[in-house]
């Protein structure tokens, strides 16, 4: 899953990519890429509302919960921006950011707290 997110961001290095991650029993099982419809998509993201609703509907039908919301920072590090903090609307979900500042797609997870985001270590499960 981490590889797919980094690849998606690297494939669109001038736009913020975004989407949702669905989980079952605390394990990420589905990736829902959503079109960024922000007018200034190189500097911010706004998920297509219809696609976002569709992704939530698909998660519900599949018995998934929202595990994470991801987006990329084409010209910055994988660190939450002041806007990310101001606009975060799902405190139970992880915030995954893929930074492309140095030409490499780096992914970092963040957990929201009332004091701000704190780095969160992801456990990567390997398929047998």
UniProtKB/TrEMBL annotation:
It holds the Pfam family Prok-JAB. Keywords: Hydrolase, Metal-binding, Metalloprotease, Protease, Zinc. GO terms for molecular function: metalloexopeptidase activity; zinc ion binding. Residues 1-116 form the MPN domain. SUPFAM superfamilies: JAB1/MPN domain (SSF102712). One of its GO terms (biological process) is proteolysis. InterPro entries: JAB_dom_prok (IPR028090), MPN (IPR037518), VirAsm_ModProt (IPR051929). This is M67 family peptidase. It comes from Candidatus Macondimonas diazotrophica.
